[in-house]
Known about the structure:
Blueprint: E1 14-20, E2 26-32, E3 41-46, E4 52-57, H1 60-71, H2 81-94, H3 98-120, H4 123-131, E5 143-150, H5 164-178, E6 184-190, E7 193-206
Parallel strand pairs: 5-7
Antiparallel strand pairs: 1-2, 3-4, 6-7
Amino acid sequence: GTLKHGDYINVEDTAVATASFPNGALATIQAITTLNPAYGFRLAVHGTTGDTLGLKEWPELTEAKRICRELGIGFDSSMVESRLLPDLWSKIKDHPSSRAEEVLSELSATRRSILDDCLADSSTLVRWLYENQGERRFDPGSRIFLVLVNVSNYFESWKLKRSKELLTSQISHYLDTFGSSPGKALDFTWKGQRFNTRADAIIIEHAAL
C-alpha cells in the first residue's frame, strides 16, 4: 500500500506479509520506507515456551543522531547526509563522556568488521557497486574498482588519491598477482535484468594521519 508518498510519486511504500511454515511456525514480514528517522532492520523470534530472541540493526546515521540526542549534543538536521554523518562523528568524538567513547568504539568496530569482510571477499561490495549505478552511467562491462580507505579517518579517505606511490605500489601488486586476466566472474541484477561480467576491487587500506 501507499501511506505517505502517494501525493507526489506513484509507488508503494508499505508492504506486509504473513508466512506459514511446514513445522507450524508463523512469520510476519513488514517493509516500510515512511519512517523518520529510518527504523533499520529488526528481527524477533518468539518461541513456544515464551522465550524471545531479537536482533536489530540501525543505519549508522540514525544511530549517530539518536546518540547525539541522548547526550544532549546539538546538530543541524537540515544538513545533507554526506556532511551530517561526519559532523555527528566529530561531535560525539569531542564529547567528554564515557558513553560517547563507548558509542564511537562500537561504530568504529562495525566499520572495521565490514572492511575486513570486504578484504576477505570483495564480491558483495563489487556487486553492490554494479547494482547501484546511476541510469545515465550504467555499464555492465568488466571493471576493476579502486577503493581507498583511511582507517584513521574514514571521512577523509578521498585524500588518499594524492598518495601516488601508495596507489602505484598496490595496483602494480594486484596486476602482477592476476596477470593478463584480472577480476573474477560475477553476476548482478540491475532494474530486474541479470548480467554477467568479470570484476574485482582493489581495496587500499591506509592509516593516514
